[in-house]
């Protein structure tokens, strides 16, 4: 159940569209929005300047960086306040009685300091869903998006400019633990959709081998369809041919062809010393524009 949505803002003009989509989702689920602005500590960058720079100059660099950080935080807060006013949202740190789906939104503001790729996933562990923005035609910030996906343990929603089509959901299914967790994390979306598709992509020899090596089971999509019936969802199994194309591109194209506003898929990768090796489908949706929202879980 989605009741607590985390939305990071950077103090940029693109924050407005992200907040609007977050508020729209919060109304659907009668959920609370936690807006988080993360300031980078300028002292973290001091080793980059080396020992040849005097302490006075280093302090000037830190002071200037802190002034810029304060300006950015102020811009982010103004955007937040403007959205709260336009949405007539309730600013609160605790649940509010009387809020129902489609009627009212509660929201809170939080600031933190530190590297975004570390600070954001640490906070995302205490939310039901984290939303990141992707501008049309632009890739995600890979370091930030993969850190949330692999380090938070919670679902990640990448916006894609198609949030108005959430009544149709496509589920990329291969029977892996990641895809199971993605379905569980997306059940709030799936159960309210009027149309749901289970996408099964043909696997090439190397994909099949990779699935075996990471303990993958047979997909058995009919069992997933049978399970979704208990949630009031009649899902259609849709087989997708690859024809030599990358698996990620095939899944996105299939979702768009079915007019899905949301693609649900498991995120595969391995994290060690913060160097993350991504699976092909995961890398595609994190680095390429998709044309629809994507919910990932690992």
Describe the protein's architecture and organization.
The protein is an alpha/beta fold. The protein folds into two domains: 130 residues, Rossmann fold (3-Layer(aba) Sandwich); 139 residues, HUPs (Rossmann fold). It is 40% helix and 22% strand. An eleven-stranded mixed β-sheet has the order 3-4-2-1-5-6-13-10-7-8-9, with helices on both faces. Helix 1 crosses helix 2, helix 3 packs parallel to helix 4 and helix 9 packs across helix 10. It starts with a strand and ends with a strand.
Question: What can be said about this structure in brief?
Answer:
With 298 residues, the chain is α/β, with parallel strands linked by helices. Helices cover 40% and strands 22% of the residues.
Q: What are its keywords?
A:
10 helices; Rossmann fold; alpha/beta; 2 domains; 298 residues; two-stranded antiparallel ribbon; 11-stranded mixed sheet; 13 strands; 22% strand
Cα-atom radius of gyration: 21 Å
Strand order of the largest sheet: 3-4-2-1-5-6-13-10-7-8-9
Give the overall shape: globular
* Helix content estimate: 25-40%
Order of helices and strands: EHEHEEHEHEEHHEHHEHEEEHE
Biggest β-sheet description: 11 strands, mixed
Number of domains: 2
What are the segments in which pLDDT stays under 50 over at least 5 consecutive residues? 272-276
At the first level of CATH, what is the class of the largest domain? Alpha Beta
For the secondary structure, the number of strands is 13
Q: What is the CA-CA span between the terminal residues?
A: 18 Å
Specify the CATH architecture of the largest domain.
3-Layer(aba) Sandwich
Percentage of residues in strands? 15-25%
Would you tell me the overall average pLDDT?
85
Count of DSSP helices? 10
Q: Would you tell me the structural class of the helices and strands?
A: alpha/beta
In CATH terms, the superfamily of the largest domain is: HUPs
CATH topology tier name of the largest domain: Rossmann fold
């Amino acid at each position: 159940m989605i009741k607590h949505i985390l939305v990071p803002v950077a103090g940029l003009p693109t924050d407005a569209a992200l907040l609007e989509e977050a508020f729209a989702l919060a109304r659907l689920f009668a959920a609370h929005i936690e807006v988080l602005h993360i300031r980078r500590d300028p002292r973290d960058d001091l080793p980059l300047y080396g020992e040849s720079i005097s302490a006075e100059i280093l302090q000037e660099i830190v002071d200037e960086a802190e002034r810029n950080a304060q300006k950015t935080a102020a811009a982010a807060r103004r955007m937040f306040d403007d959205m709260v006013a336009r949405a007539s949202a309730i600013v609160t740190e605790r649940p509010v009685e009387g809020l129902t789906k489609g009627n009212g939104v509660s929201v809170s503001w939080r600031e933190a300091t530190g590297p975004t790729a570390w600070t954001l996933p640490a906070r995302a562990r205490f939310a039901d869903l984290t939303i990141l923005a992707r501008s049309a035609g632009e890739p995600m910030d890979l370091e930030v998006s993969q850190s949330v996906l692999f380090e938070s343990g919670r679902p990640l929603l990448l916006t894609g400019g198609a949030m108005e089509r959430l009544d149709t959901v496509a589920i990329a299914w291969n029977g892996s633990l990641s895809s199971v967790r993605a379905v569980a994390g997306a059940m709030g979306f799936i159960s309210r959709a009027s149309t749901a598709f289970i996408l099964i992509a043909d696997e090439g020899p190397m994909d099949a081998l990779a699935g075996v090596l990471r303990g993958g089971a047979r997909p058995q999509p009919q069992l997933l369809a049978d399970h979704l019936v208990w949630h009031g969802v009649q899902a259609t199994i849709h087989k997708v041919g690859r024809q030599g194309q990358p698996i990620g591109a095939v899944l996105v194209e299939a979702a768009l062809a079915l007019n899905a506003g949301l693609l649900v898929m498991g995120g595969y990768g391995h994290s060690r010393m913060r160097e993350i090796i991504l699976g092909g489908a995961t890398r595609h949706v994190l680095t390429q524009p998709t044309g629809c929202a994507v919910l990932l879980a690992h």
